[in-house]
Design goal:
- The complex is a heterodimer of chains A (440) and B (368).
- Chain A has twelve helices and 19 strands.
- Chain A is an alpha+beta fold and 440 residues long.
- Chain A folds into three domains: 142 residues, Histidine kinase-like ATPase, C-terminal domain (Heat Shock Protein 90, 2-Layer Sandwich), CATH 3.30.565.10; 121 residues, Gcn5-related N-acetyltransferase (GNAT) (Aminopeptidase), CATH 3.40.630; 132 residues, 3-Layer(aba) Sandwich (Aminopeptidase), CATH 3.40.630.
- In chain A, the strands form four sheets. In chain A, strands 6-7-8-9-10-12-11 form a seven-stranded mixed sheet, with helices on both faces. In chain A, strands 1-2-3-5-4 form a five-stranded antiparallel sheet, with helices on one face. Chain A has a five-stranded mixed sheet with strand order 15-16-17-19-18.
- In chain A, a hairpin with a 4-residue loop joins strand 7 and strand 8.
- In chain A, helix 2 runs antiparallel to helix 3 and helix 3 packs antiparallel against helix 5.
- The longest helix of chain A has 20 residues.
- Chain B has two domains: 135 residues, Aspartate Aminotransferase, domain 1 (Alpha-Beta Complex); 221 residues, Aspartate Aminotransferase, domain 2.
- In chain B, strand 12 and strand 13 form a beta hairpin.
- Classes of the chains: A alpha+beta (440), B alpha/beta (368).
- Chains A and B meet through helix 8 of A and helix 3, helix 13 and strand 12 of B.
Chain lengths: 440, 368
Amino acid sequence: MLSMKERHPHVFLNVFLSPNYLRLVTTFSEESAKTFGLSEVEALKLTLASEEIFIYLCRASRAEDAIAIEATNGGYYVQVKFLFKVQTFNPRAFNLTSTISPEDTASLDEMGLLLASRQVDRFSIAGNSQEGLELVLIKEKSYPALEGSKTPEIKESKNYTIKIPDPESLKLFCRMAIAHYPGNLCPPAFSFPGKVVDMILSEEYGASVAMGDQGQLGGGIFWHWVGKKTVESFGPYVFNHPAGSKLATRLVDSCIEKIAKTDAIGLIHRYSTPDMPSGYLEQLGSIDVMQPDGKINPWPIYYRQLNEDLGCQVWAHPDLEVFLQGEYRRLFLAREIHLARNEGEQRPSHSVFAPQFDKVHGQITLKAIWDGMDAAENLAQHVKVFRAENLQNIFFEIDLASAWQAALTSALLENRFQPRLILPYAGEADVVVFQYQKGG
Amino acid sequence: MLSVSLDKLVPEYVKRFEPYLPSKPDLELMKLYGCDRLFRLNNNENPLGPPPEAREIIRRFKPPKAAIYPSGDSYYLRQKLATRQGLDPDQYLVGNGANEVIAFVIKAFCQEGDNIITADKTFAVYEWVAEFSGFEVRLVPLKNFCFDDQGMLERIDERTKILFLCNPNNPTGTYWDETTLRRFLDSVSGRQIVVVDEAYFEFVEKEDYPNGIKLLGEYSNLVVFRTFSKMYGLAGLRIGYLVGSPEVVNVIRRTCVVYSVNEVAQEAALAALNDGDHMQRTRILVSAEKAFLLRELQRIGLETQAGEGCYVMIRIPISDTLAYRKLMAQGVMIRSMTGFRYPNWIRVSIGTHEAMEAFVKALRDILA
């Protein structure tokens, strides 16, 4: 797989963390965003976020400290990355639950971060104050939603060739998948065919389709990268089943063959269609999904490893050890478990969690961005907000490559989250999915 | 510590190359998977080990000789190979396993913008070396598990330098007969280098199977690879060689790393060539155990692809990588084939009867 820098055009700006450079930073951000395809409104939001971040960092550092800013055209989004070192950095305002009180002068400093986080679609924070921090803001481009035109007709063919679709075939594939499969078995992006075309161009996504001799679309499969080592696939979607064609199997084989020799270690499949051939996937476990009518359905999650498992080491909180041992035994995954817990050492004051909303499936997943002593309290606040919004399916994912994330287990258990399944190598190491259990 | 500007230093084609991570040593694997013995059926090694004369050489190797550089170009081994095969010693280049000679050939003939052609489902090292050296790799799909001669010819352009053929093919065991190979070489007509990798040459007893070395007199663009890792049981010592026409080998020699083959390997390989009945005993074992394995697999009702060579491909009704993990937990290590672009197939090396029985039992268990 190509690295982001190879795939996507990017520009850099290196300046000192002095307000004298503010105009330069905002111009850089705005012009990059527009050049890379964001609309005026979207570019303005990203610029505002960049401005707020820069002002905050100027206050938190000395004027001789430098910052590197990188803007990247991700195809369907624009990303602005800040690389810097500051004496103190408290990103708590990035929490969805943050509020700033006009009476609290200390928290007013963080108003900029709060504003920044609300202007973008995604963000991430990595590193630490001593060795350097990386703050990434992502703003997606807007695309027109699928128009309510008539259902595309299925045209039959005796022979199909599996190939990478051209943009028009790809858009037709999205329309046909939406028309012939339940909405919850299609990725949300299928409702924006133009976006899917740009996603594929970004090479973070991939697709194969079955094309008949006369250009008939027989089916397809869609996948995208989740982190560095995992690919998530959707489908296969089969519109025509000529006898003996084994279209679904050929589509799945095509997807696996395309990613088999990349950095990907695993293929996760959350939304399997009935066409998925048997024997290709293993069931990792299931989550409970509450439907709008209040019924709870178990939702299985499938997986396929793409290479021979070399085994790895993971961190675990003592309260999670038994669960992990049992799951690793059941899944035949070779792991060395090392226990991690907080033993009174210093921790940052405030944690940051990033929510990912999946409106199609009525789910919300929190990821740990930043450790903090207030993790349990912060989590409780998040749950309160989600429950007030009547969001029922709440998940939290921790990456067992990080001891501090493993140590969040106690905060999760305290807040009625239970470990449900392991996604092998879905982060830097395995990811454990916790689900919020209602009641009490 | 000063940081290193890897972003600027590393070529783009290296950045996008995924490193190959070999499996951990047996003891580590046994610890990880909780098994108390491990049958390695993943690397097509000779279950009988090295021939007795080579064993004796290894056993008697005098430790002080470890302080002395070996022959830089495997002098005596080349002499002996040349005498046995009726060629000139200068037509041979010996490498640290056949993998190293693949790199010699690619480095000798390819420059920026060039390409090589091989199959999509074959020994992966041709593809890897070309890719991480910055050359385009054109992969031609196998046809009925076999290299597609016409397909390969159609992909040739003016920047094609080398065509790699694995004969018999690893992992499918299919091979080109002499007529096909000659027809292919005639079509190429000296415009490109044709490498025929005969790593499993000694396992093939079919009459129409071509001996590439015998064709060297007629095709000066032909380069043949052989190895001591398979039939001769010296995989742990890493020694293999290439043989070609004097003018072609003279070019490849310029990119050949000398002194890369250690003294024990050279001496053991020399001794292995006087193998007595080792080759015959190996063939008998492989033939008997392959027949046993195929019988058992048929009983289980599994599709197989078994041609020449000391391995069998099996299509299984579960993910091959899951099968790998489950078999590892039972102390049997096979090759999962998703990485060969054969999802849900595994490749099993032919081993001793005990190993084959262990494999069959474990396979039955995991599929039950």
